[in-house]
Amino acid sequence: MKTTKKTVKSSPKRLSIAAPRKEEAGYDKDFFKWVDTQVNLLKKGKLEKLDVKNLIEEIESLGKRERSALRSQITNWLMHMLKVKYQPEKRTRSWDISIANARVEIEWALKDSPSLNHMMKDIFNESYKAARLKAASQTKLDIEVFPKECLWKITDILSE
């Protein structure tokens, strides 16, 4: 009796951009190694091996960090400006340095990420609320001493 081989056609392999398990990618165990691996895969064009899920998460967090850093510097600038205005007798060189440093950091952040300019109004308003609270805490003055509406404009930061 003659045996015949069955020919099984295999379907073509599809490239999948599914995320590898976190343990395999090193994302949770060695973040630096994971980043290095992802960079090398990108450079080699091996997109199918990328940990896409975690890459998306990390890229999103980079944008949030830029916004947060800008908000922090604006808050710092506003807080020191409030302290200078409402406790001028306690003004120190340290306050002046903090004001100058915050201004430089704000300018750099906006230069590096010009799209943040479109969010400046919201960031500035959020920052003033925080600056007011921080100034009250640091000066030991009642919160009501500091106006609810900001005394400065966004352009004041950049024009000094």
Explain what the structure shows:
- With 160 residues, the chain is mainly α.
- It folds into two domains: 20-50, no CATH class; 63-159.
- It has six helices and no strands.
- The protein has helices at 22-25, 31-44, 52-86, 93-112, 120-139, 154-159.
Give the CA-based shape.
elongated
Q: Which structural class is indicated by helix and strand composition?
A: mainly alpha
Poorly predicted sequence stretches spanning 5 or more consecutive residues: 7-17
Q: How many structural domains in the coordinates?
A: 2
N→C terminal distance = 97 Å
Total number of β-strand segments?
Answer: 0
Helix coverage percent of residues?
55-70%
Mean pLDDT: 87
Described by strand count, sense and barrel closure, the largest sheet is: none
Fraction of residues in β-strands: under 5%
**What is the string of SSEs from the N terminus onward?**
HHHHHH
Backbone CA Rg: 26 Å
Helical stretch count?
6
Could you list some keywords that capture this structure?
160 residues; 6 helices; mainly alpha
